[in-house]
Amino acid sequence: MRIFPSGPKACLLKLLVLAVLLLSGELAGAVSTRVVAIVNGRAISEYQIEQRVKLLRVLMPVQGSDRQQKKAALQDLINDELKNQETKKFKITLSHKQVDKMIAESEDLKNLADRLQKQGLSERLVKDYIITRMTWRRIISMRYDRPEPNDAQVKARFSQIKAEISKQASAQAVTLYKLLPIMLPIDRQATGELTQEVARSRLIEATRIAKRFKSCRSARNATRGVFNVKIGKLISADPEKMSKQMRQTLDRAGTGSAFVMGVAPDKSSVQIMAFCDRERVTPKPPAITREFVKRRLQDQQFENLSNSYLRDLRKSAFIEYKDASLRK
């Protein structure tokens, strides 16, 4: 049986088919449809992995090399394929229209959808991702009785979470330097030479103040007898954001000291910096409630049941890796 006619028409038709194939090859270059795995007869493409890597980067901190991230993305896609196949078996469906309504009614889902779409993920992909999770939750609810955590479990978990939050807050604590700026204004004179002379006099006065300085509480006493001195407001400074020279100068001087920084860049004053104290600042931990802890326990129970169910599905599934480098 002939597929192509013979003669001149055959040559023309072959050229036309070749052109179509070349054009389709160019389009395929932008979106890789290379199959990397098959799950119960359903293919997972390289393009799907690329999209899932983007999605996971939004949902959780990026860890591992590009290859490791692709492996994790593939395993996530295999799990989703098994979940979708199971929901079809139980005839559990959720339309995009229903998802639109859910997103509109949930601030968390709306924020998630917005974050994913900002990363270049299509609206359809985002909705499919949400549908998979919602329908899977229904299956777990149907299959298992979810026991309510009792008061003792909630109390124990509440104490554990509080301790974890306190530990994290302590690890994030920073040391701030409490500094007090003191300025000796330089009045502009008729000539530059006279102004420089005033600046020199103010530098001598600043040196005298720095030597007499004992503490920030008695800063005014150190400036007594010096005309036109301005004491600024106490400021908290992160030493990690200071210049190395400034930090070393403060550390050598120690708290309760002051040093002359020199004439300001705009030459409007001579500046003194007083080092008042070091302060250890710990971020305020977020408030937690027993209801929050109870939901966390319920989520943990759901996660355990979900993982158990998935393990059973994977045991009986036919999973073929077309790309051995992405095997788990």
Set down the secondary structure blueprint:
Layout: H1 8-30, E1 35-39, E2 42-45, H2 46-59, H3 66-89, H4 96-105, H5 107-118, H6 123-143, H7 151-171, E3 174-185, H8 192-212, H9 219-222, E4 230-231, E5 235-237, H10 244-253, E6 257-263, E7 269-281, H11 290-316, E8 319-321
Antiparallel strand pairs: 1-2, 1-8, 3-4, 3-5, 3-7, 6-7
Helix pairs in contact: 2-3, 3-6, 4-5, 7-11
Brief summary:
With 328 residues, the protein is of the alpha+beta class.
Account of the 3D structure:
By secondary structure, the protein is an alpha+beta fold. It has a domain at 178-281: Chitinase A, domain 3. It contains 11 helices and 8 strands. The chain has helices spanning 8-30, 46-59, 66-89, 96-105, 107-118, 123-143, 151-171, 192-212, 219-222, 244-253, 290-316; strands at residues 35-39, 42-45, 174-185, 230-231, 235-237, 257-263, 269-281, 319-321. Strands 3, 4, 5, 6 and 7 form a 5-stranded antiparallel β-sheet that branches. The chain has a 3-stranded antiparallel β-sheet with strand order 2-1-8. A hairpin with a 2-residue loop joins β1 (35-39) and β2 (42-45). α2 packs across α3 and α4 (96-105) packs across α5. It is elongated, with a radius of gyration of 34 Å. The two termini are 46 Å apart.
